[in-house]
């Protein structure tokens, strides 16, 4: 069936449903990101027109909403609109997928929006790179955003603890698979907070919960905006106990896709649960 075929639910096309699912998983996407995900063929003008048509139709039907603030201001045009599912959109998706209906929160703050869009951009980049690599075996196996990527585990001294990465990513190149927890850093958190997060991941590694779940422990990848921030976080990692340093890596956003797909040098991931 083509992307324009109807699903039988409210006259929605498969492309419409794909868009709703993307927003359900990633929470926020701007117009430019949605265009890159939904329409991969045709001239730039054709791709933009098709994406605008889908977004406008779903917006008029009340299935998706736009945030008040545009990314890049008015000059960004329709690409700058930030979209999310409405209550009606969640209801429509529940009828299709059986997913739970959700309430829509109030307008999020600027810092939250920037952070979620940065995580979404990572997903878009992975999709584009693997989609364009037809001659290779590069593939994106899974991408779980918050809160699906969170992990609860037994705390060392009783009770339950939770780690809250920004995403869990699985990729492969035909010979090897790569798994990562993503920490999308916007250079807004103190190094004390970064250190505490690293220690939380170490505690989770020591619990062995993830190793029992998938057979290995994902590399924790800090994706940062620039090399200066990368050096600061690398400094935090260097001060961790030597046996746990290989759990972590840090890279800039522009180099993150290649690393996640195994196209950059990467030290072996720790598999043990004890030290």
In short:
The protein is α+β, with helices and mostly antiparallel strands. Helices cover 42% and strands 18% of the residues.
Lay out the secondary structure.
Layout: H1 14-26, E1 29-30, H2 31-38, H3 44-60, E2 64-66, E3 82-85, H4 87-97, H5 110-132, E4 139-145, E5 151-154, E6 160-163, E7 167-172, E8 177-184, H6 191-207, H7 209-214, E9 219-224, H8 227-238, E10 248-252, H9 253-260
Parallel strand pairs: 8-9, 9-10
Antiparallel strand pairs: 1-3, 2-3, 4-7, 5-6, 7-8
Helix pairs in contact: 1-4, 2-3, 2-5, 5-9, 6-8
Pfam families: Replic_Relax
Protein name: Replication-relaxation
Organism: Antrihabitans stalactiti
Got a strand count? 10
Overall morphology: globular
Largest sheet: 5 strands, mixed
Summed up, the domain count is: 2
In the CATH hierarchy, the architecture of the largest domain is 3-Layer(aba) Sandwich
Q: Return residue spans where pLDDT drops below 50 for at least 5 consecutive residues.
A: 1-6, 266-275
Give the mean pLDDT.
88
| Percent helix range | 40-55%
The fraction of residues in strands falls at: 15-25%
Strand order of the largest sheet: 4-7-8-9-10
Separation of termini? Answer: 52 Å
The gyration radius over C-alpha positions equals: 20 Å
Please report the first level of CATH classification, the CATH class of the largest domain. Alpha Beta
Protein name: Replication-relaxation
Pfam families: Replic_Relax (PF13814)
